[in-house]
C-alpha cells in the first residue's frame, strides 16, 4: 500500500511501529516540577495554618482583654454604686438626725454670726423678728398686717399665690415709735431652699425672735425650724396659725346644705349659718390648740403657746382697733411687745 494511503475495507493491517522510550531526564524534570508544586502548596497550607493559629491566639487575647475590661467596668460600676449608696445613706442619716432634733454637728462660728448679722443689717437697740414657714403660708401678708399696711400699699411686702420671696427681705415698721425690724424669709420646702438646710443656710440663728407661721398642720420644715430654735437660747419662738378666718368660714360652709350662698340666703338661713359658724369657731380653736400641743409632744419639742390669727384682725389689733374676727391677735401683739422690751432692756444693760 502506498505511503499515506488509507486502507480500505477488508485490508490487512501492516506491522505497528514501535514507540520510542521516554528520555530519563524528562521524567526527572516532571517529578521535580510536581515536587516543587507540592512543596509550594504545602508551604502555603502551613502558612495558612500558622496565620489561622495567630489569628486565633489574637482573637483569644482580644476576648480575654474584652472580658477583663468588662469585669473591670462592672467592678468600677459596682464600686461607684456602693459609694453613691454610702453617700445617700450618710445624707439621709444627717437629715434624720436633724429632724429628730439631734444637735447639728456644725454650729455657726463667730465669723458666721458676724457675717450674717452684717448681711441682715442687725442693729443694736432694735428687735429683729423673722417670719418663717412653708411656701404659701401667708408670711408677706402677715408682715404687712402687723406693720399696719394693706397688701396694696406701696411699701408693702409683695404677696401672691405662689412663693414671692426668694431672699430674706428686711422691712422697717413705719410707726415712728417702733423698734422692730421685720424680716420676710423665703418659704421652706421649695426647690431653692430644701427643708433640712433652711435654718443654717439662711442664718436664722442671728434673730431675736422667730414667728413660725403655718396655715394648716405642721410640715417637716416647721418641725425642723422649731428643733433648731431650741438649740439657740437667744431665740424666742412664736407658733402662729394664719388664715384662721378662712378656715373657720370654709368649715362652716361645709356644715350648710349644698348650694348655700350667704349672699343670697334669707334671714333665717343666714342666722342659721352664723350659729354654725360660731360653733365651728369654738371647735376649730379648741382642736387647733390640742393638735398643736400633741404634735409638739410627739416630736419631742417643748410645748409652746399657739396663736390663731388672720390678717384683717392683725391689722386692726396692731392699730389698737377692735375686730370681731380676732382670736389671739391681741395676745400675740402683747407678747411680741414684751419680748422687745426684755431684749432692748438687756441691750441697754450690756
Given helix and strand content, the structural type is alpha/beta
The overall strand count is: 6
Q: What about the largest sheet? A: 6 strands, mixed
Output the number of helix runs.
Answer: 9
Q: Determine the fraction of residues in helical runs and give it as a percent range.
A: 40-55%
What order do the helices and strands follow? Answer: HHEHEEHEHEHHEHH
What is the C-alpha radius of gyration, as a whole number of Å?
A: 48 Å
pLDDT < 50 runs, ≥5 residues: none
Large-scale geometry: elongated
Architecture overview:
The protein is 52% helix and 9% strand. It is α/β, with parallel strands linked by helices. It has a six-stranded mixed beta sheet with strand order 2-3-1-4-5-6, with helices on both faces. Strand 4, helix 5 and strand 5 form a beta-alpha-beta unit. Helix 3 runs parallel beside helix 8 and helix 6 crosses helix 7. The model has no long low-confidence stretch (mean pLDDT 81).
Amino acid at each position: 500500500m502506498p505511503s499515506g494511503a488509507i486502507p480500505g475495507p477488508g485490508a490487512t493491517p501492516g506491522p505497528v511501529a514501535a514507540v520510542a522510550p521516554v528520555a530519563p531526564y524528562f521524567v526527572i524534570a516532571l517529578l521535580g516540577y510536581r515536587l516543587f508544586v507540592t512543596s509550594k502548596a504545602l508551604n502555603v497550607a502551613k502558612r495558612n495554618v500558622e496565620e489561622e493559629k495567630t489569628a486565633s491566639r489574637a482573637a483569644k487575647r482580644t476576648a480575654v482583654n474584652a472580658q477583663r475590661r468588662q469585669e473591670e467596668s462592672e467592678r468600677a460600676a459596682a464600686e461607684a454604686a456602693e459609694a453613691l449608696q454610702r453617700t445617700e445613706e450618710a445624707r439621709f442619716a444627717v437629715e434624720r438626725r436633724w429632724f429628730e432634733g439631734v444637735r447639728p454637728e456644725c454650729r455657726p462660728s463667730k465669723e458666721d454670726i458676724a457675717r450674717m448679722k452684717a448681711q441682715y443689717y442687725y442693729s443694736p437697740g432694735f428687735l429683729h423678728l423673722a417670719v418663717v414657714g412653708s411656701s404659701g403660708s401667708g408670711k408677706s401678708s402677715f408682715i404687712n398686717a402687723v406693720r399696719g399696711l394693706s397688701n396694696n400699699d406701696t411699701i408693702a411686702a409683695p404677696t401672691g399665690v405662689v412663693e414671692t420671696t426668694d431672699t430674706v427681705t428686711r422691712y422697717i415698721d413705719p410707726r415712728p415709735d417702733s423698734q422692730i425690724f421685720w424680716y420676710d424669709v423665703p418659704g421652706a420646702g421649695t426647690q431653692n431652699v430644701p427643708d433640712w438646710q433652711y435654718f443654717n443656710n439662711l442664718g436664722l440663728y442671728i434673730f431675736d425672735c422667730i414667728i413660725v407661721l403655718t396655715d394648716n398642720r405642721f410640715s417637716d420644715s416647721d418641725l425642723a425650724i422649731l428643733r433648731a430654735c431650741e438649740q439657740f437660747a437667744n431665740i424666742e419662738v412664736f407658733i402662729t396659725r394664719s388664715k384662721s378666718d378662712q378656715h373657720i368660714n370654709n368649715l362652716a360652709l361645709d356644715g350648710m346644705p349644698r348650694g348655700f350662698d350667704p349672699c343670697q340666703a334669707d334671714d333665717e338661713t343666714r342666722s342659721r349659718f352664723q350659729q354654725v359658724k360660731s360653733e365651728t369657731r369654738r371647735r376649730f380653736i379648741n382642736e387647733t390648740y390640742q393638735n398643736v400641743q400633741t404634735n409638739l409632744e410627739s416630736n419631742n419639742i417643748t410645748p409652746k403657746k399657739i396663736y390663731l390669727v388672720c390678717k384683717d384682725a392683725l391689722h386692726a389689733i396692731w392699730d389698737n382697733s377692735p375686730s370681731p374676727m380676732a382670736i389671739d391677735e391681741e395676745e400675740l401683739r402683747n407678747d411680741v411687745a414684751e419680748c422687745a422690751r426684755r431684749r432692748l432692756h438687756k441691750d441697754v444693760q450690756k
